[in-house]
């Protein structure tokens, strides 16, 4: 079952080194109990450009086929996954992507607030966990693609 209220942010481009990472995409999805639509924004950076384009606001009806199920699946997946330790040390899923998810009963974030800047995580993701995280990224991308 999906949470009634949540907010998530997906960032593509989280690995850096001496300099902080330059994201190529930032996607947000927000659901509130008193609204029938999800609020979605998507900002992308074209190759060779220094900054993200302005975020384009979109919406997606919660009653659209598969939407509630997708949010529920994402919630279940993230609840089962570890994050790197210490935060921001290493991209343990190997996708150069972070997800930050928050609801009234659950908070989850990989990649740290400033991305992954080096170091080794004491926590490693198994191949099964990497596949689950990849599915979580697919769900977010599908929700953004379905939005108008």
Task: List its salient traits.
single chain, 148 residues, alpha+beta, six-stranded antiparallel beta sheet, 2 helices, 6 strands
Characterization of the model:
- It is a single chain.
- The protein is 22% helix and 26% strand.
- It is of the alpha+beta class.
- The chain has a six-stranded antiparallel β-sheet with strand order 4-3-2-1-5-6, covered by helices on one side.
- A hairpin with a 2-residue loop joins strand 5 and strand 6 (106-109).
- Helix 1 (67-79) packs antiparallel against helix 2 (127-146).
- The longest helix is centred in the last third of the chain and has 20 residues, at 127-146.
- It starts with 5 loop residues before the first strand and ends with a helix.
Series of secondary-structure elements, N-terminal to C-terminal: EEEEHEEH
Structural class assignment: alpha+beta
Distance between the termini: 24 Å
Binned strand content = 25-35%
Seen as an oligomer or otherwise, the chain set is single chain
Strand order of the largest sheet: 4-3-2-1-5-6
Task: Bin the helical content.
Answer: 10-25%
Radius of gyration: 15 Å
Major sheet size, sense and barrel closure: 6 strands, antiparallel
Low-confidence stretches: none
Mean pLDDT reading? 91
Give the number of DSSP strands: 6
Supply the number of helical segments: 2
The global form is globular
């Amino acid at each position: 079952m999906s949470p009634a209220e949540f907010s998530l942010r997906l960032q593509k481009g989280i690995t850096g080194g001496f300099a902080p990472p330059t994201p190529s995409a930032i996607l947000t999805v927000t659901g509130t109990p008193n609204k029938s639509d999800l609020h979605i924004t998507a900002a992308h950076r074209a190759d060779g450009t220094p900054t993200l384009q302005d975020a384009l606001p979109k919406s997606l009806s919660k009653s659209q086929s598969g939407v509630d199920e997708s949010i529920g699946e994402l919630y279940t997946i993230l609840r089962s996954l570890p994050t790197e330790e210490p935060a921001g040390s290493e991209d343990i899923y190997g996708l150069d992507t972070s997800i930050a998810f928050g609801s009234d009963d659950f908070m989850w974030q990989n990649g740290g607030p400033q991305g992954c800047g080096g170091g080794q995580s004491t926590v490693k993701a198994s191949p099964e966990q990497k596949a689950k995280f990849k599915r979580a990224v697919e769900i977010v991308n599908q929700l953004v693609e379905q939005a108008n």
